[in-house]
Design a protein that fits this description.
By secondary structure, this protein is an alpha+beta fold. The chain is 19% helix and 36% strand.
Amino acid sequence: MYPADRKYSKDHEWIIIAGGEGKVGITDYAQKQLGDVVFLELPEAGLKVKQGEVFGTIESVKAVSELFAPMSGEITAVNTALTEKPETVNSDPHGSWMVVITIANAAEEGELLDHDQYAGVAQ
């Protein structure tokens, strides 16, 4: 249910780590909890974030929730196509990346969950 090619935060974000960078999105569990996503507020490239820090917000018909950085670093890319069609998060949560972070501290990966561990959290 949760792809094995990424790590997960307890805040329900996922990150695919490759070559010192990480693509970040939200999990299927998170989008189901939110309901129909209608708006995304994502940062500009260049923002420096710390692990667990807010980098944006996601709004659904039910609620507004914060998005948390799964790892520290600098946001180097933002998926602006997703801000134009935020409902894509509902139809393809594990394929809808929001930002790319150049990772500042690779050791933080050890604080994230693998897909089996996350499946135990997302119930």
